[in-house]
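Lab notebook, page 48
Experiment: co-folding of the full assembly
Goal: obtain a model of how the components sit together before planning crosslinking
Operator: M.T.
Materials (sequences as entered):
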Amino acid sequence: NAGVTQTPKFRVLKTGQSMTLLCAQDMNHEYMYWYRQDPGMGLRLIHYSVGEGTTAKGEVPDGYNVSRLKKQNFLLGLESAAPSQTSVYFCASSYLIRGFVGEQYFGPGTRLTVT
Amino acid sequence: DQQVKQNSPSLSVQEGRISILNCDYTNSMFDYFLWYKKYPAEGPTFLISISSIKDKNEDGRFTVFLNKSAKHLSLHIVPSQPGDSAVYFCAASAPAGNMLTFGGGTRLMVKP
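Observation: model returned without errors.
Model output:
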């Protein structure tokens, strides 16, 4: 099992450019998440999905869009990148355990720099 | 308003001693708590969890304690090893919730 994989690992964008980050999981998890990590801010939830074809906003959704067309994939899009979106992005997947969100499995991260 | 707080951004401990990482939460609906460990350039990995029906959960060198009345949990690492040097995040989940809420993290440095 590869677990959770993210593509690409690194990317540099110019302000105004667009890009899509791809997350894939092979654990048949229903739940998938996109986080950003900034120094001193911990992990902040951008968007999440509770199943194929569904998405919902997290804590910091502005400037991002997501799609979950297949259960195993969760895409994060930046339509017009801004320097404030310079961050490390993590994807995670999870299952429910007795009604609670269980352990989340994280990908290795994508380091994005917007100049 | 941060619902999960880790008030110590960093902690330095000597190898072989105990490391105690603390976490406070404000949302009384949180009922399941997790600790994650993160090395540089890697994603966080799950370490240990505890549900509100317990006040202690132990896994090898790692023990998590939960004090529901104080809305406080702590992670004890005994004995600490240099390989434990990492950033530790606590996280919380509410019943029927779809997400985890993370604290800001504590950087642990274990000196040989």
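Interpretation: The first strand of chain A starts at residue 4 and ends at 7.
Next step: discuss with group before ordering constructs.
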